[in-house]
Each structure stands twice: as structure tokens, then as C-alpha cells.
Amino acid sequence: MTSRGKSTRWRSVLIALTVVALGAATGATATRVLNETSATPPAPTAAIPSTPSAEAAVAAPTPSPRPAPVPDHRIRIATRPKGATVEITPATGDAPITGTSPMTAEVPEGTVDVTLTHPDRGVLYRRVTVRRNRRFRWWLDPDGQLHHKVAQFKTGSAPKQVAFTPDRRELWVTLLGGPGVEVFRPRSGKRLATIDLGKHGAVEVIFTADGSTAYVSQMESGSVFEIDTATHEIRRQLSTGGSWTKVMALGPDETRLYASNWSSNDVSEIDLTSGEVLRRLPTVGTPRGLYVAPDGDTLYVAGFDAGQLERIDLRDGSSEVLTSTGGAMRHLVGDGDVLYADDMGRDAIFTHDLDRARERRFVRTDEKPNTIDLGADGRVLYVSNRGENNPQSYYLPGPERGSVLAFDAATGEPLDAIVGGNQTTGLDVSDDGQLLAFSDFLDNRVQVYEIPPYDDLAAGDGGRFGPHRDDLVK
Question: What is the pTM of this model?
């Protein structure tokens, strides 16, 4: 056979093999093969019989895997008071789950919306994320109340004051009738530590700005304890040199501590580097509340004996009485421009303009205002009120419950009211403005509330300020 014949034969074989390959391929694959082996347009693929092949099996699309089912978790919901109607709406789109508290339900993992309704309380909405079995306990607030209760727990005897650490992780409670100080988790009420100051208990507690150090006053010993907040260990006990030490205030640079001495009618100025008393400044009768002006040169003192507000020049110790109400000034707070003073004898809050040196009665309160504090942004003034005293002794529960009132700090407009227990006394707002805590002195307990945004308070039509008075009388 000639080389030309061989060439022709091999060309025929090659064409035949190409046709067979086309029969095994389909669609775009067949077109691609022809375009790579011949310049002649291919015949329609429908005219070429197809046969199964390994290539076709590999090219076939595989089905998408089914999404894993969303796991269910068991949640238990309890409310105080009991008997709330519960509706749980999962974000998955599943049908709502309903029941009555306390109740247990199986819900899909993820976000669920919970609506709680009680005939004697307002409606509470909560959105929670469920990643495991969980227990929820919610307090249901009286209708109209804008502050939401998140915790209530027992303490030692006679909780006098409460104070959040600057990071809000702990709540310190001074026990006038107990061993000293108890430290709690604010939202859970879990007790973290008891700081034993001996047999005399504690009155007030304040913290340095960085939260590393606490100062706790003790009346009977006339002293102040310096405590490491990280370890809850006492570093040193500082004598004030006075009698019946109560309220403390730090100077702006925190190198000086001022402590009011109720019975010796003076204020001790202590050098915190050496721990020594630098001087004892004479004051009006029974000094209690203190406020150091931002410049560090002026100290204001609340006189309980006759309702006097006194100003002391710390540069030379000179002083003057700014006002005298004839009542019983107890506590002072300020924002650098305005000083607020509560008067337990007059059931009122007075203000003093620091620039213009002008005083006025600001608002009326409930019976026996005790502790006052400003919200984190200075726009809300909070006042704890003990309620009317028992005619036999104020150590016994009186005919009224205590309360906490919220006022607009600029206008005095009432924003909300919370009914407390027997002798609502200690009060503090966390530095981030999110939580409010107060103590019920004769009930040995503390209550903690979430603070709503100022705009919600301002638009809340006074919250429960009006209706709360009906709940004060026992």
C-alpha cells in the first residue's frame, strides 16, 4: 500500500473515532471537541446517538445537601408575680408558643421574642438568644412604671448604703448592723464577698475613679477603711480623729479624703499618701453630706441639725452658712454647676447655683428623703425616701412604704416613681447610667432596676409618679 493510501486510510479511521467520541459527548462538550479537531461545523447532536459513559456520569450535577435541622432547647420562664400570660415567638417563623408562668417550652435555637402580660401589671417584652437550655426569671412592673426591675436580694442587717463599682460589675452594700460590707453581682444578687470590719459595721462607701480602691466609713470607731477592690482585702484603717464619722468625699486629684464627723461637728481632711489627718475643719451642727467643688478649693457641708448648707474655703479654712431651712439637710450631689441638697425635715430638695451663689427650693419629695444621686448624664435626679416614721421608734417599720423618685434635674418635672419597702435608704446609679440600686433598710434587702433612656423618661408622662402615692400607705 502506498503512503498516500495509508494516509487516506488513517484519515478515515480518525474521522470514525471522532464520530464515536461525539456520540459519547453531549451539548457543549460535543461542540468543544469538534471545534478542537475540525474546522467543519458539526452536525446537530440530536442526530448522533448517545451512549452512557464515565465522563457523562462525572459531569452530572450533584444535589445540594439539606440544611441541618435547627435544634430545640428547653427554656423555663418564671415571673413575679406568677400567673402571667406568656407568648414566645421564634425568629424561625414557627408558630408562637403560649402558656402561663411558670412554664416550660421547647423552642428552636436562635432568637425568640417573649411577651408577658399580667392583669395587675404592665406588659413586658424581651428578646433573648437561646443556644442551650435556659432559665429566665422576669419581674413584672406596675402599669406605667418606666424603670424595670431586674433583681431583688437579701443582705445582712441594716443595709445603709449601696454603691456600684465604676465598672458596674459589683454592688457594695454597707451594713450598719452587720460585720461591714457585702459585695454582690448586681443583676443576679450573687454574693461575692463579705468584708469584715469588726463589730461596728459600716456607714458609707466611695470608690476612686479607676475603681481600684474603696473607702468605707465606720461611725463607732471614727475611722475610714481603705480596701483593695480586686482582692476585697483591707489595706489600712485611717483614724479621722473625730466622733461618729459618716460621709466621705475625695478631692479632685484624689490625694485628699474628707470625712464628716457627726458628733464632733467637724470634717477631717486626710492625706491619703501618709494616712495622716492634716486638719479638722469646724462645721455647723451634725455635719453629714459633703461635696468638693471641681476646683478643689471649696467644700460644701450639709448640716442635719438645723438644715444648714455651709461653704468652706479649703485654702484658709474660713466658712459661711449659705442657707438655713430649719429642717435637716442630709445629702449633697452636684454636677459642677448646680448643687442639690435633700432636706429630711422639709421633705424637699434644694439647689444651689455654684456660679451665682443662689439657693432655691427645687422640688417636693415623699416623706423623709434620704439619699440623692444624679444619672450618668446629669439629666435625672434620683431621691430615696424612707416614708413616715413609726410613732414609737424609727427602728420599727412605719405606716408607709419607702420610695424612689426620679425628677428632671433641670426643670424638676417628675419622671417616674418606684415603691420600695420599709425605709428605703441607700441609693446609687451606675457610672454608665444603666442601673439603679437602692436598699430597704428595715427589710435587709436591695433592689436593682434598669434605667430607660432619658428621652423615654421625658416622654413618659410622669411614669407612676402620680399613682405611686396610693401604694405607699400600708
Answer: 0.85
